[in-house]
Design brief:
Length: 339
């Protein structure tokens, strides 16, 4: 009895087709006709393969005459990628070049030397075309390019470190207890000072350069916490003490490094330090304190550091206008303050 359900019949036909194909492939015969052995590297014999080719050509001509694409572009690209991926994995398993599959790959590479040179040449040409068109990274994926650059930089830095060279230029030996040479360190320190000064003048965090700072601080709250956890302040203090001892023993100014004739500071630095001290400026100018007096009970509320805080207290107590008075109390030494 014939199966009336179309889906069930198609499922049965597919199962029967796959079973027949597997049997013929296991027996070493053509999977289409099952009569002749297949061509080397193929699943069908030469006669069936020629029929498939003729049928494919006729289909392509018909689609071309109708103005329709020969194959779905998305499916074709996915099929090509999958085919290339399988071929590359098979060649890598056999320790051959992933691209040509003929020669052994170069040391620490997946391609042989000729294929690697060809790929690099095509990549350079593609990069210059994208660069001339104004595209970032020559039109390539920015994240992958940055990731590749970090890998190359780390490999180059490791090679220079093992060779005993500067990790920035790779041309000179590094300074003692360091990884960079003197010229590279001087240039880096100059750039860091310039960046620090520009961010300080703009009121930005000197570490991240994006968040604003408060009360003249050098770092934002988040970067201050990270800096404290990193232990860098301890290293900076140790380096400052070491620099102080070296300059002091050499008879130079511990602030600017100029000659100081045996003193800890030269004359300009000593004068600047004196003028910034509290002894030169005099007593600080204390701000007045504010007290709220309840005129009915003579009870005092405060003191407050700002008049706005006193007004907030009045609003909280809900005192009427004729019942309170704000008294400004100046510090006893306020009239001795210096300029």
């Amino acid at each position: 009895m014939a199966i009336r359900d179309i889906d069930a019949r198609r499922r049965k036909d597919r199962e029967r087709y796959h079973q027949r194909t597997a049997t013929r492939r296991q027996a070493g015969r053509c999977v289409r006709c099952g009569k002749f052995p297949p061509v080397a590297g193929r699943a069908s014999c030469e006669g069936c393969a020629e029929k498939d080719r003729q049928r494919e050509r006729a289909r392509n001509e018909r689609l071309k005459a109708e103005g329709r694409p020969r194959r779905d572009s998305a499916r074709r690209k996915e099929a090509d990628r999958e085919r290339y991926r399988k071929a590359a994995e098979d060649r890598a398993a056999r320790q051959l070049c992933r691209r040509c599959g003929k020669a052994e790959p170069a040391p620490d590479r997946s391609l042989c030397a000729p294929c690697g040179a060809k790929v690099r040449s095509m990549a350079r040409a593609r990069y210059h075309r994208g660069k001339d068109a104004g595209l970032a990274y020559g039109g390539r994926c920015a994240s992958s390019r940055r990731r590749s650059a970090r890998v190359r930089s780390e490999r180059r830095r490791r090679e220079w470190t093992e060779a005993g060279l500067c990790t920035r230029c790779g041309q000179r030996e590094p300074e003692e207890n360091g990884t960079t040479c003197a010229p590279c360190r001087t240039r880096r320190q100059a750039r860091e000072r310039e960046t620090y000064s520009s961010r300080r003048q703009a009121g930005l965090c000197v570490r991240c350069g994006t968040a604003s700072t408060f009360d003249g601080a050098a770092m934002c709250l988040a970067c201050s916490a990270l800096e404290a956890e990193s232990g860098r302040p301890d290293r900076k203090n140790a380096a400052a003490r070491r620099r102080y001892r070296e300059l002091r023993s050499a008879g130079r100014c511990t602030t600017c490094g100029a000659a100081s004739q045996g003193a800890s500071r030269c004359v300009p630095c000593a004068r600047k330090s004196y003028e910034l001290s509290a002894h030169f400026r005099g007593i600080p100018d204390w701000e007045p304190e504010y007290v709220v007096v309840d005129l009915l009970t003579m009870e005092e509320h405060g003191p407050f550091g700002a008049e706005g805080d006193a007004a907030a207290c009045i609003a909280f107590l809900k005192l009427p206008r004729e019942r309170f008075e704000i008294v400004a109390a100046h510090h006893p030494m306020a009239h001795f303050t210096g300029a």
